From TrEMBL:
Pfam families: RNase_HII. GO terms for cellular component: ribonuclease H2 complex. Catalytic subunit of RNase HII, an endonuclease that specifically degrades the RNA of RNA:DNA hybrids. Participates in DNA replication, possibly by mediating the removal of lagging-strand Okazaki fragment RNA primers during DNA replication. Mediates the excision of single ribonucleotides from DNA:RNA duplexes. Endonuclease that specifically degrades the RNA of RNA-DNA hybrids. It comes from Monopterus albus (Swamp eel). Residues 28-251 form the RNase H type-2 domain. Its cofactor is Mn(2+); Mg(2+). GO terms for biological process: DNA replication, removal of RNA primer; mismatch repair. This is Ribonuclease. The lineage of its organism: Eukaryota, Metazoa, Chordata, Craniata, Vertebrata. Manganese or magnesium. Binds 1 divalent metal ion per monomer in the absence of substrate. May bind a second metal ion after substrate binding. Belongs to the RNase HII family. Eukaryotic subfamily. The RNase H2 complex is a heterotrimer composed of the catalytic subunit RNASEH2A and the non-catalytic subunits RNASEH2B and RNASEH2C. It catalyses: Endonucleolytic cleavage to 5'-phosphomonoester. Its EC number is 3.1.26.4. It is an enzyme of class 3 (hydrolase).
Length: 308
């Protein structure tokens, strides 16, 4: 599993995939879908698919694949190696959704919650398999939201494919267990090898499980909260845990009334408007001040604009 493409820019989503076994292009296949890292406030969420010929899906039982949550990290790594060694009839694909992708999606103006993001990611992965010639006849999915509605949605999107959506599918269907293992192995490796683009010095790697109710995770979030710019991109800043800490510990921000022009309001209060900081660096009227752009903007590849 080569994670270099994601590590080059861990602020965006990234797809990884194995080679498509030749047999999957000629025989009817089954495909399982599962995710890893839905709940944590730290790190990415990874969606995975695994597929193989229907005639060989019982072979997955011989590999003793199981729900990744019931396995140790070493067991998951060992089973992923077995799946990789079975590449002549097993294929997989992953979508790594960075914390930044998750949070910016959820906080955009048009409502786009985590369930919708999960559904769209799963659909895109199934479509990827079809586009690459996998002869899908059966799809098994661990449910996100009401199982019946999700199953109906997938069945309408992929007519001619038998779709089964069930809670705990990762413990019921070996092909979903295999997808679960692929997704969890990828997330574990990404989190363990996370490269911080922010200048944080020697980052404390002891952030616990990454789940909001973990005391170690809460302590880590408090330690690395910048009072002005918030969190590094390792953190899902849309999570209520992160927002609560920012509200209580970060510098408060006052937004002028939308009905009053921001420039005029700033002048009335003898303050500089937020816009003035951008216009100056973009070649605006105020050229007397020179200042270095804060790393928050350079790390996110943000730049000033003269016009909208």
């Amino acid at each position: 599993m080569d994670l270099s493409s994601f590590e080059m820019d861990n602020s965006v989503s990234c797809r990884l995939a194995s080679q498509i076994p030749d047999v999957c292009r000629t025989e009817d296949c089954c495909l399982g879908i599962d995710e890893a890292g839905r709940g944590p406030v730290l790190g990415p969420m990874v969606y995975g698919i695994c597929f193989c010929p229907v005639s060989r899906k019982e072979k997955l039982k011989e590999l003793k694949v199981a729900d990744s949550k019931t396995l140790t990290e070493a067991e998951r790594e060992r089973l992923f190696q077995k799946l990789d060694e079975s590449r002549n009839y097993v294929g997989w694909a992953l979508q790594i959704l960075s914390p930044n992708t998750i949070s910016t999606s959820m906080l955009q103006r048009t409502k786009y919650n985590l369930n919708a993001l999960s559904h769209d990611t799963a659909i895109a992965l199934v479509q990827y398999a079809l586009d690459n010639g996998v002869q899908l006849k059966e799809v098994y999915v661990d449910t996100v939201g009401p199982a019946e509605k999700y199953q109906e949605k997938l069945s309408q999107r992929f007519p001619g494919i038998e779709v089964t959506v069930k809670p705990k599918a990762d413990s019921l269907f070996p092909i979903v267990s295999a997808a679960s293992i692929c997704a969890k192995v990828a997330r574990d490796r990404v989190v363990k090898g996370w490269k911080f683009n922010e200048d944080l010095g020697d980052v404390d790697p002891d952030y616990g499980s990454g789940y909001p109710n973990d005391p170690k995770t809460k302590a880590w979030l408090l330690k690395y909260l910048d009072p002005v710019f918030g969190y590094p991109q390792f953190v899902r800043f849309s999570w209520s845990t992160a927002q609560t800490l920012m509200d209580s510990k970060a510098v408060p921000v006052h937004w002028d009334d939308d009905e009053e022009d921001g420039e005029k309001a700033a002048q009335r209060q003898n303050n500089k408007s937020m816009l003035s900081y951008f216009s100056a660096s973009a070649g605006g009227n105020d050229q007397s001040q020179t200042h270095k752009t804060h790393r928050f903007f350079t790390e996110r590849r943000l730049r000033s604009l003269n016009t909208l």
